[in-house]
Amino acid sequence: MPLPATTVERESSILARYAMHSADSRGRKHPEPEQSYRGPYQRDRDRIVHTSAFRRLSGKMQVFTGDMGDYHRTRLTHTHEVASIARTMGRALRLNEDLVEALALFHDIGHPPFGHAGEDALNECLQEEGGFSHNRHGLTIAEELEHPYPNFAGLNLTHEVLEMQQTRIRKGDPSSPLLEAQAVEAADSMTYDAHDCDDAIKLKLLTMEELAQTSLVGAAVAAVKERFANVTGDKLRRAIQRELLDRQVRDVLATAGQFLTTCEDATAEEVRQMAFRIGPSPELREQKQELERLLYSRVYRHPRLLEMRTGAQARIHQMFDGYLARPELLPPLYRQRAAKVGLKRAAGDYLAGMTDRYCDQQFGEHFATGSKPQNA
Fold first, then answer.
1. CB atoms within 10 A of CB 4
2. CA angle (332, 337, 340) in 5-degree steps
3. Tens of pLDDT along 220-255?
4. Do the Cβ atoms of 291 and 45 come closer than 8 Å?
5. What is the mean pLDDT of residues 323-334?
6. 104, 200, 236, 346 — which has fewest CB within 10 A?
7. Under CATH, which number does the domain 5-306 receive?
8. What Cα–Cα distance (Å) separates residue 17 from each residue in 9, 179, 358?
9. Quick check: 117 and 313 in contact, CB under 8 A?
10. Reduced to 3 states, what is the DSSP secondary structure of residue 28?
11. pTM of the prediction?
12. DSSP letters of 193-231?
């Protein structure tokens, strides 16, 4: 069904030709009537936000666990920060903001409990079934596990949102993502670099002085102190986090803008096949790599986080084996799913959907030493 004139006219007036226009969408697997007040990518965004999987991101750790405090980012707050920055860049580059936002809100929806520790554990559990990837699980959520509509399974997202999620799975694949997806990838990187510094300082895993030894943070500290000579403490930390984001956004926009001015007559399909990718300049890329090496060695490998990682992975392995031995513990939806995809994959999907708290609760109730079998 054709798009309403309002959507077409609005996008024609504000989007560049190289943006992904809604009128060029390949549509949905299950055709649906279009709406006069929302374009297709707005509807995708809203469908993602209203899923139970999206809400559960509030209970899934980004880097730091809940017992370390309540200031630091969760998977949900990280997702919103990515969406905010990606929209800003999308608007500046005249991309389709609605598609950018949908992709940003969708990008981490498949993460299991306990961050990358949980993902690694599930990947080990499911090696014989093809492994586990949070990017692939995001597609499973969108196409199979969420079922809010009576006449089809899944969210029935547009082809473009599903295809861009596929490009996150197929690393090294020759197919290239749309510019909107490239903007989300860039926003994801700059977001976690900035907020992981902020969280690490707040949690006293690193000092500002240690972070300032890296060129990117050092330049941000110098810029803030030049503007605000007397700022200290939390105000200084927050000002530096904003400066870290601003420096990265300005760099990426300058780099991308310089290229995109040379291909204003290209379509979205044509420009995605070019060698250029939205991202930092070579200089900023080196600065980010230096900072990320420090974060990896001093924060992500911090003894407190390594202890959490070891414990979480052991619990997930034990729960996975426990569900295979006692499939009656799985909810009815996942017992039914086991008949379709196998018990191992169904148990992995159930574990992946858990929040950190619910995972610990289920472990304590059913699998911890001294727990009683169900119906005992």
1. 16
2. 145
3. 999 999 999 888 888 999 999 999 999 999 999 999
4. no
5. 97
6. 236
7. 1.10.3210.10
8. 13, 11, 46
9. yes
10. strand
11. 0.94
12. HHHHHHHHHHTTSS-HHHHTTSHHHHHHHHHHHHH-TT-
